[in-house]
Amino acid sequence: MADVWVLLLIVAFFGVCVALVRGCDRIIGPDDSEALETPPSEAEAEREPAGVAP
Amino acid sequence: MTAAGWAQLIALVVVIGVTAPLLGRYMANVYEGGPSRLDRVFGPVERLIYRACRVDPEREQRWNVYALSLLAFSVVGFVLLYLMQRIQSGLPFNPTDMANVAPALSLNTAVSFMTNTNWQNYGGEATLSHLTQMTGLTVQQFVSAAAGMAVMAALIRGLSRAGQRTIGNFWVDLVRTTIRILLPVSFVFAIVLVATGVIQNTHGFTEVHTVAGATQKIPGGPNASMESIKQLGTNGGDFFNVNSAHPFSNPTKFSDFLELYAILIIPFALAFTFGRMVKDKRQGYAVFSIMFVIWLTASLFTMFLEVGGNPKLDARGVGVTQTVSASSPGGNAEGKEVRFGPTASGLWAASTTGTSNGSVNSMHDSYTPAGGMVPLVHMKLGEVSPGGVGVGLNGLLILAILSVFIAGLMVGRTPEYLGKKIQAAEIKLVAIYILVMPAIVLVLIAISTFVRSVSDVSLLNPGAHGFTELIYAFTSAGNNNGSAFAGLTGNTAWMNTALAIAMLVGRFFLIIPTLALAGVLVRKRRVPPSAGTFPTHTPLFVVLVIGVVLIVAALTFLPVLALGPIVEQLKI
Questions:
Q1: pTM (2 decimals)?
Q2: Which of A8, A19, B67, B564 has CA atoms 20 to 30 A from the CA of B276?
Q3: Interface test with B, best of A18, A20, A31, A33 (most B CBs within 10 A)
Q4: B202: exposed, middle or buried (Cβ count in 10 Å: 0-12, 13-18, 19+)
Q5: What gap in Å lies between CA B139 and CA B158, rounded to an integer?
């Protein structure tokens, strides 16, 4: 019986791991195929400030 | 500190400084897959494995497929090791007639070795058969280390490639790490260890008669082969219960030096691997400097605190001498092997906790409160100095990304690291990585304080010292270190299960966001450096990252440390 509990614990944990993989995929967002294939524009290459100082 | 202590430290620094760049260059070539003269030796073996496992080595994976491959491989490893322990009495090569291992302990041990932690709630020579130790534990010591290094290679590819989707092939990285790095180096080192007196045989117990007329059982077994990968793979799990304090595992001061070198060499060398793979050696030097400064500081603190001992003992005139003499290595001698003394013990304690190795050559429970706190804090820094094989460099690179983010906020520009813009997705993944370990460690410590078996059975000491034992155990498990403070009985249902959960979360909940980070970075195009780019190879960056490492650890762990080793030190 204890072996079954151990197995369930491991299955549950790795199930959570798979959910975490999906969660991280959602954070990353889908592949932007166009962006991967086209070279960077000059505007993109020239970095913009993240914020404007008051 | 004695001249011998200084000599050991300086010799270690020199040998690592000379050999780490060479090994780092070799490992970079392994991960870049370039042609090598060793292809004729290793190539056929690798191709045979790929054919047998139906792996196409030319086919690369996206990050999520890479992560799922690693998870699947880990599940299979766990099941095999768990089953082997549960039925070991019926399996061959069991000359010491070991019984089957109980389920909770089997769970803890299988998780421990599958996650590269090597926390041991059992005495090896009194619990496990030779077969379990050789083909169960030792195999996991190879492949769990290789899996960590594979994740590191994937993260570096995420940083070094641009505008792509794939980060390598997990199976190829696993096989190449094992076949081209860990196996050959471990084989050579095992032979060197045998030459220093580490045992390697197939004996069971040998009964001998002592001078006093009693009988004693002397254990035997295939130890040197396990000892070499135990240190080189930053595993730490020993054949014997007292780990590297056992004379069959670490017989002389010279073997002690060699094993310390083995603990440190691959993690330090990986900094140079990183520099080569990102085509900017200066980045590797910067990462090496961060690792080295933290490791050296922790080592010197532990050594000096243990050499200093407890000043109140001399003052109270209780007849305890802590000065160096012909018969004593001086300092705080409790829990330490006379052949190592406080300096070699302190250096080992700092090195083993900075690398996620976890082996011990002295009992940390017997250190002075401040001396014992240094290894504890060293683990709480996230084990980045130099860290476990692969995972240590991962942690440091993630902290480096956090550092450039903070620096970017200070000057009001979009942060970037190695030409990759660091944006919202990356910082969310970094936040998950940084918060998971403290969360699981602190929550499980808190719950454990309410569990009756912890106070009644597990803790050896009451008060602040007992609480430190508990903090140490969960910090060690949550960081996949495996270092034991001693003084804690871990083989209870609660501790076996809770520590297993801490090890699982500490391993996989950090690896998954790391691979996701590699996945998002590999898509990004590189932006050319400009006047506003914060250089990441300068001493200023080294200082900034060290500061971030210390601040993150202090913000999360200072309160719990105040209730344990800090209050104990103040009470002296």
A1: 0.94
A2: B67
A3: A20
A4: exposed
A5: 29
